[in-house]
Amino acid sequence: MASTSTALTVDQANARLHELTVIDVRTPGEYASGHLPGAHNIPLDRLDAALSALKTAADRGDLLIVCASGARSAQACRRLADQGITAAALTGGTTAWTQLGHDTHRPAGTRTPWAMDRQVRLAAGTLVLTGLIAGQRWNAARWLSASVAGGLVFSALTNTCGMAKILAKLPHNQPRASHLDDTLAALTG
C-alpha cells in the first residue's frame, strides 16, 4: 500500500482478500454478528496492546482494518500510522461489504450480541424515556433527556460516539483474554 492513509473499496478488498491480513476493530459482540472471512478481532480499545503483533503482520503483508462503517477503522489506521504501521481501511466497513452481497463469517455456537449501533439506540432511548418519565415528578430529571439529546447531536457533528465507547467497556462487548491472546499469537506466528 502506498501510504498510511489508504482506503480500499469493497470490490478492491474482495479481490485482494486472499493476500490481506484483515483486522476487525469492532467489539467482540459486533465481530460475532458477522465478519469478513479470515478477519482477526482486535477491538479498537485494545489496539495499543496489539501494536507489536500488528507490526509483525504488516511486515509480512498488507493490513486491512475493518469496522461497521469505516469510521473506527480510519481512526485505527491513523493510530497505526503514528506507530509507523501502514494499513488500509475498508470504505463503508462491513455494512458496505454485506450490502454488496459478500459473505460474512460467524463463530459457530456463539450467541450473537446486538450490534453497537443497536445497543446505543437502546441506551439512548432508555435514558431519554427515563428522563421524561422521572421529569413528571422531578423537573431536574429532564436534564437527563436534554444531555442525551445534546450528546447525540455532538455525536452526529463529530462522527464520534461517546456512548458507544462506554458501552464497548461492558463485559459482553469485551474479548476474552484467551481470544485476544490467540489472535495476537496468530498474527505473530
Automatic annotation (TrEMBL):
Superkingdom: Bacteria
Domain spans labelled Rhodanese: 16-106
InterPro entries found in the cross-reference section: Rhodanese-like_dom (IPR001763), Rhodanese-like_dom_sf (IPR036873), Thiosulfate_ST/Rhodanese-like (IPR052367), Thiosulphate_STrfase_CS (IPR001307), YgaP-like_TM (IPR021309)
CDD domains xref list: RHOD
Pfam families according to UniProt: Rhodanese, YgaP-like_TM
PROSITE patterns: RHODANESE_1, RHODANESE_3
Alphabetical list of SMART domains matching this protein: RHOD
Name of this protein: Rhodanese-like domain-containing protein
